[in-house]
Amino acid sequence: MACNENVIKNIANEITRNCQAQNVTVDAEFVIFLIELLLLNPKYGKLFSKVINRDTLQYFVEECGSKLIRSENSINTLKMQFIVQKNYDKLPVLISKHLESIDTCLRPLVSEILEEEPTYEDDNELKKMFRKISIYIILSSGLGNPSNIHNLKEGMAALESVFSLEDLNGFIELPKAEKMAHLRHLMEIVSGVRLFNRDCKKGGEGIPDLPFNLVDAGKACLASLSNSLITVMQRVNTLTTALEDTIVIEDETGNVGFDLKRTADLTVNDVKEVIELLLFYRQYEVFTRRLLSDVQTLVSSAKHHVEKVRHVLDDIHAAVKYKSAVPVTTVFPLFCNLWQVWRSMQNTMYLISTVNRLISNLASIQDLMKIPQSIVDKMLAGRSVITDQDRISNRISLVERLSMANLENYIPYSDPDIFCSGREKSAQFLGFCAVCLTVGALNPGNMKVGYIKNRGKRYSFCNIKMATRFAKNPDRYINEVLDFARNNPHVIHLLNIIEDVRQVKDLDVLVVKYVPKICVMEKDVQTEPHPIDEYIEKDYTWDLWEWKRRACKWASIVNCRTHSTQTIYSHLRSEIQCQTAEPRDKCQQTKKETGMNTVPRNVFLWGLRGQIGDGQHAMDLIVPHNEKLGGRPVDYCTWPCTSMPSTEYREVQEQDYNDEEDFELAIHSKLGF
Which of 78, 10, 73 lies closest to 38 in space, CA to CA? Predict the structure, then answer.
């Protein structure tokens, strides 16, 4: 593909400049995110498949710029997806990225500590080295700010209690790899000492009360997410109820469309606007539920960490109580254990703060969405709003269940294959109806209807009719969903079908719409029971051999001769007259004369074969060019040939020849051969 990463960056920069010229501010990274999704559509992907020219590039830039400038609901959905994809991931991945960022910030300081080798006699250099190690431990542990003199002194005192200047001389002589490992071990011990001093009320001025703050932050985040989810679900249920009766499927062709006859003054654009709003709020719901699940996990782990910190502190108090000196082999592992639990709580607090930032960003995008209440009221038409829980648990009659059992690859809801280890397997397209998705409608599937399996994946449906139609041709409706997704890129990440869309990005025509038969006239006609009088064919027979005998008799007509005569009394006489003309000879002259074809001179020697004696002579076979062939009399030669004078023949006969061959040669010479 000619459109590589550098080309995409250049296109994004040009689109960003065009948007800024229109007083629209966009992020260059978001533009790259949008371009990569648009290139999955062959309408745009084919533009850069071979060679990039200025016309195609300008067309693509204008298309992207117009989408960003209009700032439709689909763009807001894409912005929300971009923010979550950029700033959020699985919890272990987020923690590892956070720790890597801390190490990256401290890398210059660590390099100085590892590369410096002060001499034993220079106390100032040793003290500077000791100070740098203390600063690194404070920054790496996150326990206070080293710019605060009290925090720095406390950190240096804790370090000096476990790492003296004599130990520093041995540290300098170590290789870099061992220095780094020893430095991290020192950080864990010193941080544990500071945390223990804080619990003993002997320091810890810059250390926050993390156990208390963590529990409160988790509860506040849960409450915020719960309130946001309640608000979003109210809008989702309203839009879904308004939209579900508008989606219809044709019995003849199986095409999915919109039923606009039920509601007056309702257009297709109004329905599409409601669909775009529902897509946005469904995406918001997916992200909110994901964050809520993660925060619940974090809160439960935070409570566990708080209890573990209390147990570790109790163990340290028990180890040092009533003792003036404690072996390092006993107390140092406890300090390290205390620090590791504290680090886990720090990571949990970081994740909760990340979720809070995401909630704030998503809420700012949600504030931009406006629901057209007048259109929604028209589509509701006085109906009460139905929740997803009520919708997906509607009961199915026994007759409908029996009809579903005859479908190919049907899996009932009670089938044990649906459940795995006590948890329900997720259906394709997030459990939304696979048939309604062909037009973008996110109608939740009814689990009581069951599922249909195709190519190892399970699909759910909102009612029996949709499932029955899908079972007849599953690939058709799956391709229609993929075609809708690549034409509407904000649906791709919502349904998690990015890989499926990539597999069909090179197919120009993915869906062939079925055209219904057009009814020209619909009219009832009543006819008489027997419009024709009763008639019995006298020559009718049921015997096949009789028909064959008749066929053989009728076939004798080929041996007969038919005469026709037209008289004045003929029923079907013809008054047509026909005039004929004799064929004429025509010649044609061309502009270029390239040659002439002459008639070869052909001579036939008569009497050479089958005749003994005299009379042989030449016959001219040349036909003149201007002579027209026709009937003419044929001359027959007799033996002896009368065309040869008798005197010449007698002269030849009087001479004495040795054999018959010499005699024939003499005759030929006389005849002029």
Answer: 78
